[in-house]
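Model it.
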Amino acid sequence: MLLSEFDYELPEELIAQQPLERRDASRMLIVNRDALTLQDSRFERLAEYVQSGDVMVVNNTRVFAARLMGQRDPSGGRVEVLLVHELESKDPSASTDGRPSQIWEALVRPAHRLKPGSFVRFGSSHLHAKVLEESAKGFKILKFEGDQPLEKLFEELGQTPLPPYIRRPLGTSAADNERYQTVFAREKGAIAAPTAGLHFTPQVTEALIANGARVVEITLHVGYGTFQPVRVDKIEQHQVDAEFYEIEEDAAHAINEARARGGRVIAVGTTTVRALESAANTKGLVEPGKSETELTIIPGYEFRITDVLLTNFHLPRSSLLLLVSAFAGRNLTLEAYRHAVTERYRFYSYGDCMLVI
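Modeled.
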């Protein structure tokens, strides 16, 4: 199949720039794969679509302050750094100069001005980085050093890395630090939020449990690969970069037990789908453990674990739209997107969602 077959027209004003006042006030489009029907609903009514015995699986990854603003040393030119993947970490006792250091793959702007050997300083020089080289994927390899624990400096000097389609004159707001995290966020390591989980509130979770469903947490640290553009014409040639995931034994047991009793596995977000399907064994059971997944899901993929999908609306021609199309079917997915545009749904990270049953 061709990437051009997964395109749609989206008016720019439908790209949500701010979160709603209430998380669960989002609209929710119900997409029925068997009946091929669409129904407008609200997220706060999610429990009405859940059955006793179902298990709802959420991603408890937490976004860290991966966006750093610095200056080239000594020129003072502005530099923006997005931490993508940690390659190496040394504590002070292992360093020759007694300073903590970490080596990261990072996206850097302006990239052309930062050659190997260049230096960047952040804040009042408590944190600085040296450009070591450029990776085959186009990332800069940076070695960070500081006079304090680097995690502490990243949190103090870094910002929440909002997606580039959220364009505001003042950039990240203080509210984003809370609203661009799900209520389940615990395990720090993502550079972007698992956005389908942003709609949840404790009240919605309690309603799900009251209806006889179980809510289970797993972890997949959302990396740059999730949002990397698809750069091939034939989608079969696309490969999503690896992301770390972990499914603890209790979570795997709860999921497998629910399936054995006839309950449905409801995946909250494409990241959860990727982790669950990566952990499936040949018997259709979820194996506990931690690993890196390189699974790329496109139409034609046979789902082994996921029965229902809750997901936000994704960019045209993206790997996330390919995954949703694999689950719901290309034609029905694009019909749902056209309906959402006509009905003025809000799109992308801070936007509305759809429940594919």
